[in-house]
From TrEMBL:
One annotated GO molecular function: RNA binding
Protein name: Uncharacterized protein
Organism encoding this protein: Limosa lapponica baueri
InterPro entries given in the database record: P-loop_NTPase
Any one cellular-component term (Gene Ontology): catalytic step 2 spliceosome
Length: 143
């Protein structure tokens, strides 16, 4: 299915992605450049290629450094902003006050401590949302 295809534009990423997925380069993960097509039409789901004029990339985040992303993807070396190939579009939204809390010292079971802290906040504060940042999914599910 084409809907399942992931496209990367940096060729050196193909080998790394294949390694991290435990895949064979040229099978599930491949690359395609002029005169060198290292893909399998039936199996490749992640394809790395150097140029594709019709490709558009949208990166949406509330916290990323937009200028850094724009500069990375911009292929304009002239210094003329009218020739930029990458732009920043901003969509303004409502912001809400945020309180940030940190623990004073390390705890032996951070998942348990996070749940206990969220429950205390829920019981002591008025209505609102609680967002907790934890490590990767594997570590969180293991606890």
């Amino acid at each position: 299915m084409v809907d399942d295809l992931l496209l990367c534009l940096e060729l050196n990423v193909a080998g790394r992605v294949a390694d991290e997925r435990g895949a064979v380069l040229g099978h599930e993960v491949g690359y395609c450049i002029r005169f060198d097509d290292c893909t399998d039409p039936q199996a490749t789901r992640i394809k790395v290629q150097k140029k594709r004029g019709d490709l558009r990339l949208i990166v949406a985040s509330a916290t990323l450094d937009a200028e850094k992303f724009r500069d990375f993807f911009n292929q304009n070396d002239t210094g003329d902003p009218s020739k930029d190939t990458s732009v920043i579009l901003t969509v303004e939204g409502r912001t809400f006050p945020v309180d940030i809390f940190y623990i004073q010292s390390p705890v032996p079971d951070y998942v348990k401590s996070t749940v206990e802290t969220a429950m205390k906040i829920h019981q002591m504060e008025s209505d609102g949302d609680i967002l907790a940042f934890l490590t990767g999914q594997d570590m969180t599910l293991a606890n």
